[in-house]
From TrEMBL:
Gene Ontology, cellular component aspect: cell outer membrane
SUPFAM superfamilies in the record: FimD N-terminal domain-like
Principal localisation: membrane
PROSITE patterns: FIMBRIAL_USHER (PS01151)
Pfam families xref list: PapC_C, PapC_N, Usher
Name under which the protein is recorded: Fimbrial assembly protein
Length: 824
């Protein structure tokens, strides 16, 4: 049964009056309505007094979405109390919400406290609170607040999450069959983490495992056991256990002890550094492994062609070893120096990093003298920063560093420092050496280009980092070589960025590293991409990449060219031509990215040896895991298949769920609870609730505002959500929790009647047992109910409290034109 014409007229009349009220509320505190547009009977059953006063809300408790100066901060229970003059009401906020405002101390003292845990913010000059559509908008003048960055969420609003258990994994399997000797080779490798969250503490164990069929060797190691907790009000992180020193001044060393360090991710975006990127070129579908000092920190499968790894941890510093294993079994390796931008700190602020402990090996045994390490950066002024540090284990090893950084404004930023070390070698001889470093960075936003990093470093022959000292003293070798000079530059430029169909991006990278005790290493990289149109065909892209690596006496040259033409919605046909050390392989390709959760590509052509070649790549994202599968065939040579499986498991007191997961350790995640209703899609269908109504949205960037969204358009028609979006800012490694009220069931028209035969007032709300609104009462007690079930009891509320209950009759199917619902 449709809503009657009379009801529609009534609704329109109320809407018109509401619009008039909204416009007049700015001019006067009170408004009177002419109800002559309503029937005589309706005038007695509709209470418009709440609209007569600006932002009037009936006294009572309400669960509202909160926004502070336009930023959503979650839900809070707000109590509305009568104002002293008795003509309006005031929202009463609790102490927790008051803390989230991040007020200056003098402003906090101006906020009036009516009674225990009840603060009236209107007592703060300039503060305004308005309630509309279930949202309490709090506006506070910026002068009263500690922070003034509108794009950053202050630490008072960060969420440390709930207690729970996590287990994340990344597994990679390879199977290769060689045609010339009929040999089969298989391998399985993996890494991940397991741990628990208790309050602000995160206890973690990082593991890696491998198996090779050739020698039937299986290895499993817990390579790092530690616990940490974020300290938001100090913008720092405390870590206990087995730690890799993460310093802007000193190189990485593994130790067992304690570390307290400023965490730049907690700073506003303009003051943060950057996460390293790795660019390379794969000849075929390949496995890329990134390790540091033997510890795997990233592993993935990439399709043939250029690759760019961007999701490394921002805490990764120092030299990284990159291993590219092709499906034919060949391996290429190179090193990447993760350069830092100039070490600058905002005026008056001090960044620090203090550690103490003893060096430890991968078997968890202590090896080497105890040491203390500390470094700092002090923002002297808007332009200058002073930084340095000291690292010492008594007479065995000491290093001291001092440097200065300068903000050159439109010219970028630069820093220069010197580090001197004093070392006692195995023979008891004292060695002294110095290392100098120069760094420069500049982003040219007006030219759509940047020099990500440019730098030079020179180390004298007797200079030692602590890791080098430990290797020489206790292992008898220096497996990394003693660094002499390092030149490095990385930059990019986009031409014609504002002209559709002409945007051209150029990327360059260059690294030269030489040593005192071994051969040098050189790596050059160049890439250019262009989008253009031919006739009526737009969106055509062409890319050219070239890399040369000279590492450990081996030269490796790779050039790749590709062109793709759109043949549909997110579908392309293309041609890939790749040359490796003079051998060329042309391949025709077809790519389909129309479904975010199912991406695939297939190629066919000739291998570098001239034989027929076919390969394919498929990526599937599900609520349980992410699967990357690739296969290759080369005539008369080999056939290979590889798969990467990434996923995780999260359990809390609210429930548990398997979920997909990225490759980065210690990212935050959000557990979503939908009242036991399964199949609810979230965040672009990247996650979906299980049969218990639980889902986990993984890989949330810590200290950044994140929206958890219900994909309403993709839901089943019998599900009704109470809200569709929730926002939170999670600390590192946190398990957030978001409960979305859901109702699942039929839709039906009902007529509510009270015991005396009258009907509830127009605008009364109908809620199910979970507190989800399923209907609003219209004229003559009629209500369109959504998400209800036979025998279900519903609460009817008006005047700020529950007034009566209705029960859906047994056997109701929703096909009836109207159903009488007694409200008792």
């Amino acid at each position: 049964m449709s809503v009657t014409l009379k009801t529609k007229i009534t609704i329109i009349a109320l809407q018109v009056m509401s619009i008039c009220y909204a416009a007049m509320a700015y001019a006067d505190d009170s408004v009177e309505f002419n109800t002559d547009v309503l029937d005589a009977a309706d005038r007695t059953r509709i209470d418009l007094s709440r609209f007569a006063t600006d932002n009037y809300v009936t006294p009572g408790d309400y669960l509202l979405d909160i926004r502070i100066n336009g930023q959503p901060v979650g839900q809070e229970k707000i109590r509305y109390i009568d104002a002293p003059e008795g003509k309006s009401t005031l929202p009463c906020i609790n102490g927790d919400l008051l803390s989230k405002l991040a007020l200056k101390e003098d402003a906090r003292l101006k906020v009036e406290q009516r009674y225990e845990n009840c603060y009236v913010l209107q007592s703060l000059p300039g503060a305004k609170l308005s309630n509309y559509a279930g949202v309490l908008e709090i506006t506070v003048p910026q002068a009263w607040m500690k922070y003034n960055d509108p794009n950053w969420t202050p630490p008072e609003r960060w969420d440390e999450g709930i207690a729970g258990f996590i287990f994340d994994y990344s597994l990679n399997g390879q199977l290769t069959r060689q045609f010339d000797n009929s040999d089969n080779y298989s391998s399985l490798s993996g890494y991940g983490q397991a741990g628990v969250n208790i309050g602000g503490w995160r206890v973690r164990g990082e593991y890696q495992t491998s198996y090779y069929s050739e020698n039937h060797q299986f290895d499993f190691d817990w390579n790092q056991l530690y616990a940490y907790r974020p300290l938001p009000m100090m913008a720092a992180k405390l870590t206990l256990g087995e730690i890799y020193l993460n310093s802007q001044v000193f190189d990485t060393v593994r130790f067992t002890g304690v570390n307290l360090a400023s965490d730049e991710r907690m700073l506003p975006p303009a003051l943060q550094g950057y996460a390293p990127e790795i660019h390379g070129l794969a000849r075929s579908n390949a496995k890329v492994t990134v390790s540091q000092s033997g510890r795997v920190i990233y592993e993935t499968t990439v399709p043939a062609g250029p690759f760019n790894i961007q999701d490394l941890r921002s805490s990764v510093r120092g030299v990284l070893d990159v291993r590219v294993e092709e499906q034919d079994g060949s391996v290429s390796t190179f090193q990447v120096n993760t350069a830092n931008i100039p070490y600058l700190t905002r005026p008056g602020y001090v960044r620090y990093n203090v550690s103490g402990g003893a060096p430890s090996r991968y078997n968890h045994k202590i090896q080497g003298p105890s040491f203390l390490s500390g470094d700092f950066s002090w923002g002297i002024s808007n332009a200058w920063s002073l930084y340095g540090g000291l690292q010492s284990s008594g007479r065995e090893y000491t290093a001291a560093s001092i440097g200065i950084g300068r903000d050159l404004s439109i010219l970028g930023a630069i820093s220069v420092d010197a580090t001197e070390s004093w070392t006692r070698n195995r023979e008891g001889e004292r060695l002294k050496g110095t290392s100098y470093k120069l760094s420069y960075a500049k982003t040219f936003e007006e030219y759509n280009s940047s020099i990500t990093f440019a730098g030079y470093r020179f180390s004298q022959e007797d200079f030692r980092t602590m890791a080098q000292y430990l290797d020489e003293r206790y292992q008898g070798y220096d497996h990394l070589g003693r660094e002499k000079e390092l030149y490095t530059i990385t930059g990019n430029k986009t031409f014609w960025a504002d002209e559709p169909g002409k945007a051209t991006t150029v990327f360059v990278t260059y690294t030269h590293q030489n040593y005192w005790d071994r051969r040098s290493q050189d790596r050059y990289g160049f890439a250019i991409g262009r989008s253009f149109r031919i006739g009526n065909i737009s969106g055509i892209t062409a890319n050219l990449s070239a890399y040369r690596t000279d590492y450990k006496g081996r030269k490796d040259d790779s050039i790749a060219f590709s062109i793709s033409v759109p043949v549909g919605d997110n579908r392309w046909a293309g041609l890939d031509v790749q040359t490796n050390n003079g051998k060329t392989s042309p391949m025709a390709s077809y790519t389909d990215n129309s479904d975010y959760n199912n991406l695939w590509r297939i190629r066919a052509g000739a291998s570098q040896s001239g034989n027929a070649s076919v390969d394919g790549y498929y990526q599937h994202r599900s609520q349980l895991a992410e699967i990357n599968t690739n296969a290759s065939y080369q005539q008369n040579q080999y056939m290979a298949i590889g798969t990467t499986l990434r996923g995780g498991f999260t359990a809390t007191r609210h429930g548990a769920a398997l979920h997909n997961s990225g490759a980065t350790m210690n990212t935050a995640r959000v557990m979503v609870d939908t009242n036991g209703i399964g199949g609810v899609p979230l965040n672009g269908e990247r996650s979906r609730t299980n049969s218990a109504g639980i889902a986990v949205v993984p890989d949330v960037v810590s200290y950044n505002s994140f929206d958890t969204r219900v994909d309403v358009d993709a839901m089943d028609g019998d599900i009704e959500p109470s809200k569709a979006i929730s926002t939170a800012t999670l600390t590192e490694g946190a398990i957030g929790y978001q409960a979305f009220g859901m109702a699942k069931g039929m839709k039906m028209m009902g007529t509510l009647r009270l015991a005396d035969g009258s009907e509830p007032p127009f605008g009364a709300e109908v809620y199910n047992g979970d507190g989800v609104s399923v209907a609003m009462v219209l004229e003559n007690g009629q209500a369109w109910l959504a998400g209800v079930n036979p025998d279900e009891t519903l609460n009817v509320m008006w005047g700020g409290k529950k007034q009566c209950q209705v029960t859906i009759p047994p056997g109701t199917t929703g096909q009836q034109a109207d159903t009488l619902l007694p409200c008792r």
